[in-house]
Prior knowledge:
By secondary structure, the chain is an alpha/beta fold. Helices cover about 35% and strands about 25% of the residues. The protein contains seven helices and 14 strands. It has an eight-stranded mixed β-sheet with strand order 3-6-2-1-9-13-14-12, sandwiched between helices.
Amino acid sequence: MALIVKKFGGSSVANNEKLLNVAKIIEKDYKAGNDVIVVVSAQGDTTDELLEKAYSINPKGPSKRELDMLVSAGEQMSISLLAMTIETLGLPVVSLLGWQAGFSTDSNHTKARIKKINTERMKTELAKGNIIIVAGFQGLNKYDDLTTLGRGGSDTSAVAIAAALKADRCQIYTDVDGVYTTDPRKVKGAQKLDKITYDEMLELANLGAQVLNNRSVEMAKKYNVELEVLSSLESKPGTIVKEKVK
């Protein structure tokens, strides 16, 4: 039995059909006897829509604390809807906000850094046999205020959980089936890479590749968390990101 951490982006859970698709991916690993923790982003363009509302009210710019209070609601919606979808498959599941999953951060609102993760609640839920759905991108500071980790923060949340619980696999699901030499949606001859090093992935991320957030790759390198980037739409091998590649 393995512990698998899976992360799904907003486009992967954007509607009911896609939620069911994700639920079935989770079901397959769970029924194979694995423990499964899933990190989810806000649905579709929810975060952008919430930010647009905030700036329509206060064009000069709302306080960062209140922005965190607002945009963190997007992930709360996603985790509950995915948990409800998994329930329809007859599987045991529980959704947890970032702070319920033990995420403690600094107080740098909208760009917070993870300070530690108390894994007790997640271990308890796994012991009960539950699939765990965690709201990515968020945590709690020492003042008990909600914080968010910035763009791509759900990737970082997933890697942090995998590191803290010493997961056997950390899978990042996207709308492409791996890491390519260039953007396959724009360049016809782009080639998929079977494996890539952390440093090479960081270089691609810093140059604008949006497959993985650079902070998540930095964390994976620091704690030696092997990543797999794969498609939520196609069942085939993706790209492995690790320290050394032959």
